[in-house]
């Protein structure tokens, strides 16, 4: 079996607390590279070694004082690096002089990291904090650091397979703890139903109907959509969640340095985005796009520019002012065209006295005013009315009124019959709509071939159409309960005896069904008792049940008289039988297998003692058959009394008579022997036979279960004839018997 190399982190931590500094040196060797990598995200490369050394010193002090981690050394160390860096920033602030000392007597200002604050306020961080430290450690190393199980095994004191198994349990525990954080705040039944199934929804483990219902609810519920998005983030973006929580904004840089390629982080976020969108939830896409695109943009900038500045130093983009609607354009005044003066034609010879110049003034045309454009404020877009149907499992319910069965009183609008007739089966259909529901409430009824329309006229508060199979509530805000009565079906399949009520109001819909029970009815064709192969010693019977549908079980009850025994062999094919209850149940009710039943031929008894009865029940159908079996039959060829010759006589001093049985077929052979007063049955035992004498000294019974040769009876006789010197032998094998007699000594000279 694979064993981890060296002591685990937990063992080394325990040794440090006991004063073993060499153990701390081993911890230093395991984790100082990670500490320096974290330090480089916070300070320059020249100062990173000093920052990491200070962090190791802080952790050592904590362990010596009984504090610090028990298992998860790496995460605790990296958090200490960040805290030491924050302490250095605080201590390096410039000294300011002031005459108001009271202002500095308040509690010291804490260092606020908005990344950590945002994460720790969420359910994901609470769920992670509730996990055992061992689970937190394995999640950090596998999910955040991305280390292989073989590399983590020495740190946790496990094998590589053990690390993989622990990581699986830790991830599942985080998912369950996260969902429990949200279930406590869920108020509505629909939200609780959806939240309980989000874990399976993310893993694709719901049925088609459940998957559709969850998706429809997420389309309309922003709160459950937020839970879904965060759960996807817990499953697919665990490093991006845990690293900022413990390491601050430098956590993403630490992850990038650990992976060796910053582009890998962008690919990581894209992978998370695929998981967010893989269920095609429209609301999830809209909300998740903002988060993923923003994070991807920051990581892409780091990856493409190669900027080594710690993420905490990246400046936030300036906040954009909200876009204002365009202002009203100013009205442009009409422009006055310039006055046009014609040029005077000069004479060739200038006159002595210049004539007066006449200036012709053109009329100024009236300019056409420029029309002022009218600013049209666009109407806000009207959000589309959602049309996706929503399953409301509490919209319609079908109940049976107290008492059920035949109604004790007449209900208006319900089909009734005379008092001495079948009054049918009553049900109440209840519709539960939202408060002040404005939408019409319509129910439809479908029923099997064994049922009829259950209403006559219109029940109170409803308008019904028998041809369409629908009813509409007159008051959709508060529909009246609808009583219906179905006549009792006289048979048929489950589908024939089932009715379904479908309700719809607005986007809400629901349906409910009930199946009526028909009274049992006899069917002479259900059960048959068929004779099997001919056998003089056993009555072979085959019990057959006709095939059929819509029956949950097929049961046979076998009863028999005192002269018979249980006829079913152990474990018959296709049946499960119990001798104690005298019942057999078919494994395949739709098509039961033939059931063999073997009755040994009774050796006597009355007709009732030789009678068996089989009662079959298949769903609502039953049948009963019985048969009286014949007793023992006379067979003249069964027994022979043989007198041996002098060559075959085993003992010439006595009279030997061989009792030969024919056709025993391996069954028990019984012979009953009686004799006259001049004879004496010698008490000699034949091998394989057992004999017993009754209280009558001239009668004996012998039997064997392994007949392989005739029974040799030895006799002593006084001279005489008739009954005083006669033996009578009665032989029985199974259901056959035979009786023969012989004289001793015989009338002829032979012995």
TrEMBL record:
Positions of the UniProt region annotated as Disordered: 309-390, 474-495
Keywords: DNA-binding, Membrane, Sigma factor, Transcription, Transcription regulation, Transmembrane, Transmembrane helix
Ranges annotated as biased composition (Polar residues): 485-495
One Pfam family here: Sigma70_r2
Record flagged with keyword Signal: no
Record flagged with keyword Transcription: yes
Domain spans labelled Putative zinc-finger: 191-224
Gene3D superfamilies per record: 1.10.1740.10, Anti-sigma factor, zinc-finger domain (1.10.10.1320), Winged helix-like DNA-binding domain superfamily/Winged helix DNA-binding domain (1.10.10.10)
GO BP of this protein: DNA-templated transcription initiation
Biased composition, class Pro residues, residue ranges: 319-340, 364-387
Gene Ontology MF annotations: DNA binding; sigma factor activity
Domain called RNA polymerase sigma-70 region: residue spans: 27-93
Compositional bias of kind Low complexity: 309-318, 341-351
Segments traversing the membrane: 252-273, 285-306
Family: Belongs to the sigma-70 factor family. ECF subfamily.
Name of the featured protein: RNA polymerase sigma factor (Sigma-70 family)
């Amino acid at each position: 079996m694979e064993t981890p190399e060296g002591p685990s982190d937990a063992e080394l931590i325990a040794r440090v607390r006991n004063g073993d500094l060499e153990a701390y040196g081993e911890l230093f060797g395991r984790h100082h590279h990670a500490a320096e990598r974290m330090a480089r995200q916070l300070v320059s490369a020249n100062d990173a070694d000093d920052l990491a050394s200070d962090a190791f010193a802080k952790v050592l002090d904590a362990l010596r004082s009984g504090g610090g981690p028990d298992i998860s050394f790496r995460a605790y160390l990296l958090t200490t690096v960040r805290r030491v860096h924050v302490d250095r920033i605080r201590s390096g602030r410039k000294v300011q002089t002031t005459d108001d000392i009271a202002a500095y007597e308040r509690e010291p200002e804490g260092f606020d990291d908005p990344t950590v604050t945002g994460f720790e306020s969420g359910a994901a961080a609470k769920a992670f904090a509730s996990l055992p430290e061992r689970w937190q450690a394995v999640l950090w190393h596998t999910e955040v650091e991305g280390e292989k199980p073989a590399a983590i095994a020495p740190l946790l004191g496990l094998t590589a397979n053990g690390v993989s198994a622990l990581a699986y349990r830790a991830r599942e525990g985080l998912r369950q703890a996260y969902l429990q954080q949200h279930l406590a705040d869920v108020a509505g039944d629909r939200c609780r139903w959806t939240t309980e199934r989000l874990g399976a929804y993310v893993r694709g483990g719901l049925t088609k109907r459940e998957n559709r219902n969850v998706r429809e609810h997420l389309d309309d519920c922003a709160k459950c959509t937020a839970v879904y998005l965060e759960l996807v983030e817990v499953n697919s973006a665990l490093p991006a969640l845990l690293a900022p929580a413990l390491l601050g904004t430098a956590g993403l840089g630490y992850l990038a340095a650990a992976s060796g390629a910053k582009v890998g982080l962008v690919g990581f976020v894209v992978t998370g985005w695929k998981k967010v969108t893989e269920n095609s939830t429209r609301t999830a896409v809209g909300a998740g796009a903002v988060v993923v695109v923003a994070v991807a943009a920051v990581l892409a900038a780091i990856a493409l520019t190669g900027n080594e500045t710690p993420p905490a130093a990246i400046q936030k983009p300036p906040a954009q002012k909200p876009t204002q609607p365009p202002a009203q354009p100013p009205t442009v005044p009409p422009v006055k065209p310039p006055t046009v003066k014609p040029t005077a034609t000069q004479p060739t010879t200038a006159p002595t006295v210049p004539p007066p110049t006449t200036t012709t003034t053109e009329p100024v045309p009236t300019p056409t005013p420029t029309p002022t454009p009218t600013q049209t404020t666009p109407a806000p877009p009207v959000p589309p009315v959602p049309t996706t149907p929503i399953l409301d499992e509490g919209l319609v319910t079908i109940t049976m009124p107290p008492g059920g069965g035949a109604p004790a009183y007449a209900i208006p609008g319900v089909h009734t019959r005379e008092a001495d007739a079948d009054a049918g089966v009553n049900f109440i259909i209840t519709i539960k709509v939202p408060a002040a529901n404005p939408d019409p409430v319509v129910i439809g009824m479908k029923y099997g071939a064994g049922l009829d329309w259950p209403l006559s006229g219109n029940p109170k508060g409803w308008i019904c159409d028998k041809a369409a199979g629908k009813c509409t509530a007159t008051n959709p805000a508060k529909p009246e309960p609808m009583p219906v009565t179905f006549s009792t079906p006289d048979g048929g399949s489950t589908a024939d005896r089932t009715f379904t009520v479908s309700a719809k109001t607005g986007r809400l819909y629901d349906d409910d069904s009930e199946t009526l029970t028909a009274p049992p009815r006899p069917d002479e064709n259900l059960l048959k008792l068929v004779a099997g192969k001919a056998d003089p010693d056993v009555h072979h019977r085959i019990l057959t049940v006709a095939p059929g549908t819509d029956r949950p079980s097929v049961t046979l009850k076998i009863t028999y008289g005192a002269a018979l025994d249980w006829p079913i062999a152990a474990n018959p094919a296709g049946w499960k039988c119990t001798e104690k209850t005298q019942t057999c149940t078919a494994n395949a009710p739709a098509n039961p297998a033939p059931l063999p039943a073997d009755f040994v031929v009774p050796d006597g008894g009355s007709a009732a003692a030789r009678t068996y009865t089989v009662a079959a029940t298949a769903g609502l159908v039953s049948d009963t058959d019985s048969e009286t079996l014949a007793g023992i039959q006379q067979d003249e060829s069964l027994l022979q009394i043989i007198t041996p010759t002098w060559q075959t006589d085993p003992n010439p001093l006595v009279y030997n008579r061989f009792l030969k049985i024919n056709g025993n077929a391996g069954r028990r052979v019984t012979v009953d022997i009686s004799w006259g007063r001049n004879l004496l049955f010698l008490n000699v035992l034949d091998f394989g036979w057992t004999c017993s004498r009754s209280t009558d000294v001239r009668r004996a019974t012998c039997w064997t279960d392994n007949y392989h040769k005739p029974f040799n009876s030895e006799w002593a006789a006084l001279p005489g004839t008739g009954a005083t010197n006669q033996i009578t032998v009665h032989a029985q094998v199974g259901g056959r018997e035979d009786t023969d007699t012989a004289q001793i000594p015989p009338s002829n000279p032979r012995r």
